[in-house]
Amino acid sequence: MKKLLAIAVIFALVAGAAFAEVTVSGSVEARWRIFGNTDSDVIQSRGRAESGSIRLSGTDDEGVYGGQFNMAFAPDWIVRNVTYDAGGPGVNVTRNFVWSPNMDRAFIWWQPIDQLRIWMGRDGDGMFNPANITRWGFHRMDRGVSVENWDGSDYLIGNWDVNGIAFIITPMDGLAINAALGLEWDEPIERTFANRLQLQVAYSADFGNFTVTYQARESAPTVNNSNIGATFSSGSLVDGLEFEVGVAYNMREGNNDPIRFGLGVEYKIEDFGVKLRALMHPREAFFFFKVDVMPYYVIDGIGTIFCNFRFAQEANEVINWHVNPYFRKTFGGSDFRVGALFSNSGVSGAPTNWVIATSMVFAF
Question: For residue range 176-233, what is the model confidence (pLDDT) as tens digits?
């Protein structure tokens, strides 16, 4: 911990000397599972500080170069001193609670001309992502008491969150050409281009945004598992309506189920709104789908009530579901949440899983 703090202090001093404006931000989150009959995979609330982060960012006077450093912390349990005997494992188990640091965002950029920005580093939040409603934007990054699934990345493609280099080219208003290459120290350059290259053309107009993305992927050497996809989104065609629709095609040779579809919709009328996302993948054996419907209501001066419903066929003749009502009260960038999650276990005749949990986030 002392070393990490020292690194952050050194970065702040260097950034303060190099950049005209340096900002410091961060957050701390705590969660508590009040009641329940299971430890949910999506509500990791054990009555403890769950996560934290600190971020430093800055730019120079002219806006020609800048950078960001974000250190995130999350708790973890490490099992140590496990002994075994002829009767079986686990006669002596010690579990140590530790904080695991993760430098999920650390990058620098240089913009020598208005039409070109060169970017190097790591961005764990994802770059060039056209799927907002169907991905993390569906829950507005709510945590702890709400179900957080980033499923849309498998259907409306366009996300890059690895170490590497990127070129953002903007030859004219509304048009962006993005090229990104993930880099690994011990990987041959030809393997890097075959497995980590991403190319994207994005065009924004008054009526909406259109994006075409290519992602090079190899599931094994010489096995092409690349994807190409297109997404259209708009928030201006109908008052109160935002939507995105997309299609992705997997280029693996011999793939009998290469097409995937995605749809995201949000409609708001004053204090009431509803979101829907549908992710579909027709297959030979069955029709794979996931549908989330989330109505919400804003109570002026009090908070917002959400209720997320999901139905998903993830295997032949198996329907998984969950119901997730929760309440959220915001205080600037901080918030308080309390809610419940009811879900099936995917096993016929098994009891329903349920958890009631609360969490608080302080952000600065």
Answer: 999 988 877 677 777 777 778 889 999 999 999 999 999 888 766 677 878 899 999 9
Token pair belonging to 208: 């909406």
CA 161 – CA 182 distance, rounded (Å): 9
Residue showing tokens 């290519």: 214
Side-chain-facing half-sphere of 103: CA atoms under 13 Å: 13
CB 106 within 8 A of CB 122: yes
233, 208 in Cβ contact below 8 A?
A: yes
Cα separation, 151 vs 263, whole angstroms: 12
Would you kindly state where each structural domain of the chain is located, as residue ranges? 2-363
State the Cα–Cα distance between residues 327 and 144, nearest whole angstrom: 12
Three-state secondary structure along the chain? Answer: CHHHHHHHHHHHHHHHHHCCEEEEEEEEEEEEEEEECCCCCCCCCCCEEEEEEEEEEEECCCCCEEEEEEEEEEEEEEEEEEEEECCEEEEEEEEEEEEEEEEEEEEEEEEEECCEEEEEEEECCCECCCCCCCCHHHCCCCCCCCCCCCHHHHCCCCCECCCEEEEEEEEECCEEEEEEEECCCCCCHHHHHHHHEEEEEEEEECCEEEEEEEECCEEECCEECCEEEEEEEECCCCCCEEEEEEEEEECCCCCCCCEEEEEEEEEEECCEEEEEEEEEEECCCCEEEEEEEEEEEEECCCEEEEEEEEEEEEECCEEEEEEEEEEEEEECCEEEEEEEEEECCCCCCCCCEEEEEEEEEEEC
Q: And the tokens for 65?
A: 């170069």
The residue behind tokens 């494992």 is: 89
CATH class belonging to 2-363? mainly beta
Tell whether the model's pLDDT for residue 101 goes beyond 90: no
